[in-house]
Design brief:
The chain has 766 residues and is mostly beta strands. The chain contains 5 helices and 57 strands.
């Protein structure tokens, strides 16, 4: 059959009708041929896992590998030397900065760790330097090009106590900034949120800090005298870029639904992003501390990551921090939860059985401790803003603490010393300090170990006129005390072998100028001294004594106020003035009846130092880091820093947000959660357990003005699982396993309380 030709008009019509189909086919082919959509990259802020200081020997500087080092981490080594010779970095390290002047040189090197790293690294100098030192840091989550921007550094000559480390330039967002200063004395830094990574020793030549956020000029201040060479540098570490998904849906073809990729949180790197770039929030609308450097595997210190998550949660206006499942070690600094706005963020964990915070503060050499979590209102510090809590030193250089009648603070030394009886059984003891007072007309407590679990217990009562000023004071004849009476005289006492010395005192008022005072026991006599700095102190009293120091279990060792009853239930007799340097020792520092020379500088620590406070580490108020605890110097980088808390004993309920704190466990350490004038809603929290370690003190609301707390479904295992000296507090569903006492409560309404006391429990519920 003959084929009929298709008319031209019909052919044109057919092609016209096929146009939409051809367009669809062409679009599909184009989509199939096009490359895949670009991935969204989220940034993960780097963090310092651990750090080691270096040993100087001959021409070499030898640094041990940081314990947290794993393949892919960045190793950053910053050193100081005083040689004019050539310096050669460790094998495999590349130089990233160097600054030289005035007989000083500072150099930083970096290297990406491989699968097999040596146990130590050696830096060599061609001619032996007079001194050399350095710190080697292990940094997780560094970017592909680790050093971000141009490092900044400056060298200064002698005579400078204050010097600067310029900010690195051209720095990527969410970088980690490392500042290292080199000077022969301990140093402080001007950046409020900087965390001390490590301090080298014994000459304290190098100190390194880290902070996140916008790079800024770092001003470093030496606590030593002027006349020493200084040099510093600042390095920025680029954040890690993590692929988290695609930015468009895959095409819907053949009736198949569109597919979208999703972010999935995991406990192995790469972790979920810190914040969604569109909303500013992290996973599920929460801020995820893992993305800020916290490690849910428990292999490295998570202190920096936990603290870094607070700032964005504060900026969001009471945001929520969600803690994924895992174990998080707190080795170097408590988790300080505090916002400038006063709106404390919510802290929500994945559950008591899923999230564990392991309090390792001071654990590596068993030197001390501190709270794992410190929840604090801004009123803690706002009350002292006018007078200023930190003042220039009275003797030597550095800082002193300023307490006023309107803004009294108290420091419970049982926290950093991680003990309920840190002085008991000592065969010798010295308590001393330098201070000034603004009045000689009020009773003021410099330091005391006193208080009772039972009001009107044996030894407790009003000690008063005429021997103790014009008005009586309430004391329990505890282990030791240094007090200024309302007659202006210096008073002291000690309890040895169960025998109280009685009130020892100066013959006249000590005045309001700077004074150094000491009470000491050498096994035979207790002596009380005082005098102006750099003069021979007068022995005010001497009492024969024997036996060891007696400190009851129901005493608190505190500074700046008296603990009238146990756990600061009724603090009073607050110090009014400045406390410059303070030391407790397990030896008699002065045994000469003719007196010893009063210091004209800060007191120093040694193996006999139970506690030393010189106020060099007050950048994270209300947290304060002592210089010595239990005989060893505190060092952040070595994960051995102990911490105490500036408890405000006058501020009331701050207010208006009642943060939710829930869903995790805390184990080990001196203190689980310390609530410092704030009103949280606590729920589903375990503090201490047989598997992760009991705490000394569990839930702590130690001052009577921390009212407004609500707590339910709380578990505790420790010497003292719970202390709630708080009015308008409601607690229910409590389960406590207790060692010394199951709890001390003053004011709360309690229901559903179960206790499991052991045979050693002295008190059930107080």
């Amino acid at each position: 059959m003959r084929k009929r030709p298709i008319p031209a008009a019909a052919l044109a019509l057919m092609f016209a009708e096929m146009a939409p189909a051809r367009a669809l086919i062409a679009m599909i082919l184009l989509m199939l041929a096009a490359p895949a959509a670009a991935d969204i990259n989220s940034t993960v802020t780097p963090g310092v896992g651990s750090a080691t200081s270096c040993t100087f020997s001959g021409n070499n500087l030898i640094c041990n590998k940081p314990p947290s080092t794993v393949s892919g981490h960045l190793l950053l080594f910053c050193e100081y030397d005083s040689s004019a010779g050539t310096v050669t970095g460790p094998a495999g390290f590349a130089q990233v900065s160097q600054f030289s002047a005035n007989q000083s040189r500072a150099t930083c090197y970096d290297k990406v760790a491989g699968s097999s790293e040596p146990s130590s690294y050696t830096l060599s100098v061609s001619s032996a330097p007079g001194v050399a030192d350095g710190i080697l840091m292990d940094i997780a989550n560094a970017g592909a090009t680790p050093i971000s921007g141009t490092p900044g550094g400056t060298a200064y000559g002698a005579g400078n106590k204050t010097y600067n480390a310029p900010a690195a330039t051209g720095v990527a967002a969410q970088a980690l900034n490392i500042v290292c200063g080199h000077q022969s004395f301990p140093e402080t830094i001007s950046i409020a949120n900087a965390i001390r990574v490590a301090t080298s020793g014994p000459l304290v030549v190098t100190t390194c800090w880290s902070y996140t956020g916008t790079p800024t000029l770092a001003t470093i201040t030496s606590t030593g005298p002027s006349g020493y060479f200084s040099i510093a540098e600042q390095i920025a570490i680029a954040p890690l870029q993590v692929q988290t998904g695609t930015n468009i849906a895959t095409p819907a073809i053949l009736n198949q639904p569109a597919g979208f990729s999703a972010n999935v949180a995991a406990n192995t790197p790469p972790y979920s992003p810190a914040a969604n770039p569109l909303t500013g929030y992290g996973l599920n609308g929460c801020f995820n501390p893992v993305a800020y450097g916290a490690d849910p595997t428990g292999s490295v210190d998570s202190s920096m990551g936990l603290n870094a998550a607070v700032a964005p949660a504060c900026a969001a206006g009471q945001g929520t921090i969600c803690i994924p499942s895992g174990t998080y070690r707190i080795d170097s600094q408590p988790w300080l939860i505090q916002c400038a706005s006063g709106l404390v963020p919510n802290i929500v964990g994945a559950g008591m059985g899923s999230v564990t915070l392991l309090n390792n503060l001071g654990k590596s050499q068993a030197r001390g401790g501190g709270p794992a979590i410190e929840i604090a209102s801004t009123t803690v510090l706002a009350d002292g803003a006018v007078a200023g809590l930190v003042k220039p030193a009275l003797v030597g250089t550095g800082n002193s603490w300023n307490n006023t009648a309107a803004d009294p603070f108290v420091f419970d030394l049982n926290y950093p010393l991680a003990s309920t009886q840190p002085l008991n059984g000592k065969s010798a003891l010295t308590v001393e300090g330098c201070f000034s007072t603004t009045t000689n007309g009020a009773t003021e407590t410099l330091a005391i170990s006193d208080g009772s679990a039972t009001p009107q217990a044996s030894g407790c009562g009003f000690i008063g006129p005429p021997t103790y000023g014009a008005n009586p004071g309430y004391f329990c004849k505890g282990a030791v005390a240094l007090v200024v009476g309302d007659d202006g005289k210096l008073y002291g006492w000690m309890n040895t072998g169960g025998t109280w010395t009685g009130l020892m005192h100066s013959s006249s008022a000590i005045g309001t100028s700077t004074v150094c005072a000491q009470i000491s026991y050498d096994g035979s006599n207790v002596r009380l001294f005082h005098g102006a700095p750099n003069t021979t102190m007068t022995m005010d009293a001497k009492v024969a004594a024997s036996g060891t120091v007696t400190e009851r279990q129901d005493e608190d060792l505190v500074m700046l106020t008296d603990s009238r009853f146990w756990h600061l239930e009724l603090p009073e007799y607050a110090w009014q003035g400045q406390v410059d340097t303070f030391r407790i020792s397990s030896v008699a520092r002065c045994t000469n009846d003719a007196g010893c020379t009063a210091p004209n500088a800060k007191l120093t620590g040694d193996g006999n130092t139970i506690f030393l406070e010189n106020w060099t580490n007050v950048s994270n108020l209300p947290l304060v880091g002592p210089e010595y605890t239990n005989g060893i110097a505190n060092t952040l980088g070595a994960q051995t820093q102990s911490w105490m808390v500036a408890d405000d004993i006058t501020s009331g309920n701050p207010g208006n947000n009642h943060p939710e704190i829930s869903g995790f466990s805390i184990g080990g350490g001196a203190v689980g959660i310390d609530m410092n004038v704030v009103a949280p809603q606590l729920s589903n929290i375990a503090v201490g357990s047989p598997t992760i370690g009991a705490v000394t003190y569990g839930f702590m609301a130690p001052t009577g003005n921390s009212y407004g707390i609500i707590g339910h479904n709380l578990w505790g295992d420790g010497a003292v699982p719970a202390v709630f000296n708080s009015g308008l507090t409601y607690l229910y569903g409590l389960n406590f396993t207790c060692g010394l006492t199951c709890g001390e409560f003053s004011g709360p309404e309690i229901s559903g309380l179960s206790t499991l006391p052991s045979g050693s429990v002295k008190w059930g519920i107080i």
